[in-house]
Design goal:
Distance between the termini: 32 Å
EC number: 3.7.1.3
CATH superfamily of the largest domain: Type I PLP-dependent aspartate aminotransferase-like (Major domain)
Shape: globular
GO molecular function: kynureninase activity
Number of domains: 2
CATH class of the largest domain: Alpha Beta
CATH architecture of the largest domain: 3-Layer(aba) Sandwich
Function: Catalyzes the cleavage of L-kynurenine (L-Kyn) and L-3-hydroxykynurenine (L-3OHKyn) into anthranilic acid (AA) and 3-hydroxyanthranilic acid (3-OHAA), respectively.
Helix content: 25-40%
Radius of gyration: 22 Å
Protein name: Kynureninase
Strand order of the largest sheet: 2-8-7-6-5-3-4
Order of helices and strands: HEHHHEHEHEHEHEHEEHHHEEHEEEH
Cofactor: pyridoxal 5'-phosphate
CATH topology of the largest domain: Aspartate Aminotransferase, domain 2
């Protein structure tokens, strides 16, 4: 079994270790929740202060031109494009993931229904992130379509038929960390005559993504997880070049107009991806997001996303090894794929009976020890099939191998000493 000393050596030999200096991490904290909210880059505070004090405070409205505010959605979009296999000018930063999914799914459905009106089905996974399903259900009701949810990855193939309009998947599942084969599934959906939308919320900045290489149609993603953009950071949307000039999105706001400052009463869509902007962008949040994206781009000189992925796999493999060897007898089981090629940059653990219901309290006890992960509730009626999970995200930019070892040691102590039984860990907060 890997020892703490082995982990210290791995950290010393890690070519990416210098990237941790980009972040302001609290002392004594092992942060394994970057798949929910990334940590604060050191550059963010100064950059946001500059926007507030100089660009807004002194230059006022002139900064839309003098500071390039108007160009930020595209400029940051081009930076994110380098992380997800998109070309310059194909990806824009705007709004939230939910709003961007509504735009992208609306556009995809319009294209599909114009080409084949008989296609009436949207397909996704029952375990997809709920906001994706809510948006799809809303659009299905509006358009007289049907949302079909599969329970298992293997069931997707049977839905790729002449009824399918759009296949909507999250590349890395938020609960289990399962990672789809984007290229293969996109090709299979296209062969069936359907379009594909990919949610990259748990992919962008975490795993290598090649949207153009996979010939995907649409993609969305958020800025506050692995891109370290801060709480509520703006999201992004990408459209394949073959669709960009012909697609229509329903939130036709003024900044997505071809000439927004002509203030004409009729709407004419801007060229390409710019039509996916709706309203005025949130400049303070954009400034913070750009700093976060730059922390990921800093890895380019060290091997880029491939190097980050290599370390991510090593970190998650180590965590699985240690958790299974030290915690299996204490009631812990792996809930993520064992195959590294089918796993994103997170590992999820479930609890055996009689600890089924203790997941939230176990996570709170870990957080009290300075190990921050998160809890995701399962189905109370089917805990054997859909269990409560302890979810741990591994961001290679600032997580080291010794962090992984120490996190498992804390988990062992929480379980052995039954610290999770303390009353303060069993009072559930509004956010889990």
């Amino acid at each position: 079994m890997t020892t703490r000393q082995d982990c210290d050596v791995l950290d010393q030999e890690d070519p990416l270790r210098e990237l941790k200096q980009q972040f302001d991490l609290p002392a004594g904290t092992i942060y394994l929740d970057g798949n929910s909210l990334g940590v604060l880059p050191r550059e963010t505070l100064g950059r946001v202060q500059q926007v507030i004090q100089k660009e807004w405070g002194q230059d006022l409205i002139k900064s839309w031109n003098t500071a390039g505010w108007i160009d930020l959605p595209g400029r940051i979009g081009d930076k994110i494009a380098r992380l997800v296999g998109a070309a310059p000018g194909e990806l824009i930063v705007a709004d939230s993931t939910s709003l961007n999914l509504y735009k992208a799914l609306s556009a995809a459905l319009r294209i599909s229904l114009e080409q084949a009106p008989e296609r009436k089905v949207i397909v996704s996974e029952r375990s997809n992130f709920p906001t994706d399903l809510y948006i799809a259900e809303s659009l299905a009701q509006q358009l007289g379509l049907r949302l079909h949810l599969v329970d298992n990855v293997a069931d997707i193939a049977a839905t790729l038929n002449t009824d399918l309009a759009v296949l909507m998947l999250t590349e890395v599942n938020y609960r289990t960390g399962y990672k789809h084969d984007m290229k293969a599934l996109t090709a299979a959906a296209h062969a069936a005559g359907a379009l594909v939308i990919w949610d990259l919320a748990h992919s962008a900045g975490a795993v290598p993504v090649d949207l153009n290489g996979a010939k995907a149609d649409f993609a969305v993603g958020c800025g506050y997880k692995y891109l370290n953009g801060g709480p509520g950071a703006p999201a992004f949307v990408w459209v394949h070049a073959k669709h960009a000039q012909r697609c229509w999105q329903p939130l036709s706001g003024w900044l997505g107009h071809a000439a927004p400052f002509q203030f004409t009463p009729d709407y004419q869509a801007a060229a390409g991806i710019k039509r996916f902007i709706c309203g005025t962008p949130a400049l303070l949040s954009l400034a913070a997001l750009e700093c976060g994206v730059d922390t990921v781009l800093a890895a380019e000189s060290l091997g880029g996303m491939q190097a980050l992925r290599k370390k991510s796999i090593a970190l998650t493999e180590l965590f699985i090894e240690l958790a299974e060897s030290r915690c299996a007898a204490l009631g812990i089981r792996l809930a993520s794929p064992r195959d590294e090629n089918q796993r994103g940059s997170q590992v999820c653990l479930s609890l055996d009976a009689p600890l089924h219901e203790a997941g939230y309290a176990v996570m709170q006890a870990l957080i009290a020890r300075g190990v921050i992960g998160d809890f995701r509730a399962g189905d109370p009626a089917r805990l054997d099939e859909v269990p409560h999970i302890l979810r741990f995200g591994f961001t290679p930019l600032y997580i080291g191998f010794a962090d992984v070892y120490d996190a498992v040691e804390h988990l062992v102590q929480v379980l052995k000493n039954e610290e999770w039984k303390r009353p303060e860990f069993n009072t559930q907060g509004a956010v889990t």
